[in-house]
Structures are given as C-alpha cells and as structure tokens.
Amino acid sequence: MNNTKRWMVSCMIITALFILSSCGGPKLMTNVTMETSKGTVQIALYDKDAPRTAANFAALANKGFYDGLTFHRYEPGFVIQGGDPKGDGTGGSGTTIPLETSPKLLHEKGVIAMARSNDPDSASSQFYFTLAPAPFLDGKYAVFGKVTSGMDVVEKLRKGDKIISARVVG
Q1: DSSP-assigned letters across all residues of 102-164
Q2: How many helices (H) and strands (E) are present in the chain, helices listed first?
Q3: pLDDT, tens digit, for every residue of 96-129?
Q4: In a domain, 5, yes or no
Q5: CB-hemisphere CA count at 13 Å for 120?
Q6: Is residue 147 situated within a structural domain?
Q7: Residue 120: domain span
Q8: Nearest CA to 80 among 57, 110, 40?
Q9: What confidence score (pLDDT) does residue 9 get?
Q10: What letter would DSSP give residue 89?
C-alpha cells in the first residue's frame, strides 16, 4: 500500500472512531459527591443528555439544599429515594422542572433520576437511586446521572438515613 492510501485509510479509521465515540450512551460531565450517614457516593451527571435536570440537581446541591435531609423511601430491589425537605414524599424545592427524557437514558442499576407526582412536569428536588434495572420507568421519569463510586453505600441506605452533604466537585 502506498503512502497516500495508508493516509486515506488512517483518516477513515480516525473519522469512524470519532463518529462512534460521539454516538452511543449518555455523556457524563459534572461530578457530585454525596456524603451520607452510610458513606460517600460519587455521582456523574448527564449534562449533555439531561441538561435541565442535571443543572437543577447540581444547583440544589451547591446551595446546600440536600444537606441534612433524609432518605424517606426504600423499596428493596427497586429504589432508595430522598431530597424531600418535608421527609414524607410530599415536599420539594418550591420550583418544578419539565420532564426530560431520552432513549439513551435508561433505568439501569445505579442511575439517579427525578421523582415526581402524576404530573410529568412536577419534578423538583426529590430523586432516587435505582437498586436494580427498572425499564418500566424508561421515558416516564428523568434519568440524569449515575453512581460512579459508592454503589455499595447506596445499597446500604434505608429509610431515615441522612444526606450529610451533596456538592458539585467537577
């Protein structure tokens, strides 16, 4: 193969790799550290695929909204839910955001997603971590990140456990 052909093949391979890397699963960017009464959880937010929802969670975390709140719902093999200032599943931050879904954002084990009422555009501050895949929620609730470290901690969380702090770290 001559140099021109090698160069063309190299360019095609690089182009193909670039295209493949820009497709596929959700893109991660912002990282949040959540300190809980059971340990530390690292969360990567899907800034590109759920920008409004990720930004809402990051803003609440950075202003200390989640600090001291409890996890108010535990469903074994399904979810652990927190982020309610009332502690009973009826509270929020005072503002709501519209439902934001994507075929890329699936309810796999270890994702974080927004809880809401029956109104699809009622998400506010409550979130849940999935403890197992929950495909029946796909497209109905906004997945906006995933646990990158500390899934063992998430699996130990129960109703009444506390969020000590949650902050954006990068």
Answers
A1: -TT----TTEEEE---SSTT-B-S-EEEESS--GGGTTTS-EEEEEEE-HHHHHH--TT-BEE
A2: 3, 8
A3: 999 999 999 999 999 999 999 999 999 999 999 9
A4: no
A5: 9
A6: yes
A7: 26-168
A8: 110
A9: 41
A10: S
